Amino acid sequence: MIAASSPDGTNKNVPHQKFSEKDKSKHFGYDKQSGPAVWAKMFHLCGGHSQSPVKLDTTITVTYHHPRIMWWNYSLKPQAMTISNNGHTVLLRAKWARKEDTPYHWSAPSSEEYVFEQLHFHWGQDDHSGSEHMLNNERFALEMHVVHYRRDLGSVENAGLYDSGIRVIGVFFRISEAEHHNVGLQQIVQLLQTIRMANSTVVLLEPFPLSRLVPEFSNLYLTYNGSLTTPPCAETVSWVIRKEPLTISRQQVEEFRNLMSEDGQTIKHNWRPVQPLNGRTVIQIR
């Protein structure tokens, strides 16, 4: 994929510095004391020059008609699925009966396959804040991040050490003025009350295929090289942002806002402000 190439021409298979165990144990949040404004003091990578999220402006992007994304196994029902409140976000994980059934995607003509790891969400305290990326100066009520790792790197932990080792599919959700529920998302929303407290998990009795949540698209997306949007903020992420938002009802978003953090406060917002592009190119695929 175009975005998978290292922008400075370096070998993307040379590993970055590993995260220290000390960094992993540090607490972060979204308030003044532990929020994005002070992350770089605790996690040095958060002060880097290729950070995410960013503003996406379709009027100044470089436009191509390729590569197209090819999706595999997203319609297969997993054997097990859990939804957790980790104190920062809602996290969905799943396991398939056979390892080869795990959903993955690739972008022709590249042969690099990206395997599903987990998905999670970012939201805000009102209907016009919540998404981490901005699209043409618009913020959305919710943004879903579908996290994948490069198959040849073996795990998301190892992939996080290499340029474009991780790929995140970003999907925006805009409030439905007709107050229509998002049917796919409702399968998660209806369980949020059971994981209201931080560090709680629910096992789904009836797992569902990712295709109910993740819309398959081959084009009409934006891509750039960036970072994780939470500490340790590793700059090893190839971002793919779907241009067309999905819809969500106000009632559904409110259920996310009622979740509790590790500090016992409601998670009214969990998004990082946009970061400077610093000369990076955003590519638009039509």
UniProtKB/TrEMBL annotation:
The keyword Lyase applies. GO terms for cellular component: cytoplasm. Residues 1-30 are annotated as: Disordered. Its EC number is 4.2.1.1. GO terms for molecular function: carbonate dehydratase activity; zinc ion binding. It catalyses: hydrogencarbonate + H(+) = CO2 + H2O. Belongs to the alpha-carbonic anhydrase family. This is Carbonic anhydrase. Reversible hydration of carbon dioxide. The gene is CA2_2. Keywords: Lyase, Metal-binding, Zinc. The lineage of its organism: Eukaryota, Metazoa, Ecdysozoa, Arthropoda, Hexapoda. InterPro entries: CA_dom, CA_dom_sf, Carbonic_anhydrase_a-class, Carbonic_anhydrase_a-class_CS. Its cofactor is Zn(2+). SMART domains: Carb_anhydrase. Residues 26-286 form the Alpha-carbonic anhydrase domain. Residues 18-30 have a biased composition (Basic and acidic residues). SUPFAM superfamilies: Carbonic anhydrase.
